[in-house]
Sequence to fold (368 residues):
Amino acid sequence: MPSCFDEINVTEPSLKPVLEKVSRGERLSRNDGLALEHSDDLHAICGLADCVRKRMHGSRVGYIVNVHVDYTNICSSGCRFCAFGRSDKDDDSYLLNSNDITVRIPEGVDEIHIVGGINPDLKLGFFTGLLSDLRDKFPDAVLKTFSAVEIQGLARRENLSISEVLKSLKDAGLGMIPGGGAEILDPEIRSEICPDKATADEYIDVHRKAHELGIPSNTTMLYGHIEAPEHRIDHLLRLRDLQDETNGIIAHIPLPYLHGANELSERAHPQSGILDLKVMAISRLLLDNVPHIKSYWRALGIRMAQVALRAGADDMDGTIGQEEIMHEAGSDAPRSLGPDHLEQIIKDAGLEPYRRDALHRPIEEVVK
Ligand code: SF4
Fold:
């Protein structure tokens, strides 16, 4: 019986060895990644990634009933791609307390995703108190809270080690770390787009320390601004190396840079649906040790996120609700999608939806 890979018609000679390696289940090298990046054969690249998705997950695509809450927009980092962060002097700056946050969370969610700016006034007690309150009120939901850069900033403010902060957060209820803050894991690009944020090494180190403590995480990559293909490939390879070491990454999420009201937009590459699909596919192909690749509809838009399910992604993220960060950056996707709508989007891509928890376990198999 012909395999999925036999049906791929590779037109460029540079992709033939890549097809052979992928079909044999062999790991791709940096040069293979660059060959994919520099190829115009989008059909073959997406086809290859689609076959790998199928080999790993069959026809199943996950989604989650979740909620996002962005607890503060006060931030000292000043990233040049960000339209969300504010100074505490700005009229529209805000900080939500635990009550403000809990009233925004509907009953029955399987995951509570909370992130915010690097707010210099917040101490460890704010975060542990919030987690304890959420654990008491929503005992069945996984608390996926505070990105690596928020945790690194907190450790610096409190003069504690990353592991000490993570242990306190875990004791208070932290279940998982979201992937935000990775941007591009390259010092020169970071110095241009987010010079005052945690470094690439610090981002990796927070995830490593979390994994060592049994806290899984997601990872991200913000692409389509001023980075070059080499930066994207090296970013993915750093994540793959970390995963070889710790096996703590559950899902990787490619995030397109959104040309909204932010400093970087004049210098950034034009937005490109071709690049969206290519990055999704190459993420699937290079990250052979990361179980899930997420098509984040809030950033990609619903149509592109649906197409990306045929370019390597096996997950649509979730119902979301309150999220502000992508909205302010220029996303025109709706703020929330119902489970029925998400399921229909997946079915219309010819795939089979399943509701999952934060660890991507099918919800009917999760004993709470
Ligand atoms: S991306 Fe995050 S860390 Fe950077 S300025 Fe915006 S809120 Fe702050």
Remarks:
- DSSP finds 15 helices and nine strands in the chain.
- The chain has two domains: 4-54, 59-365.
- The longest strand covers residues 249-256.
- Residues 59-365 form a domain with the TIM Barrel fold (CATH 3.20.20.70).
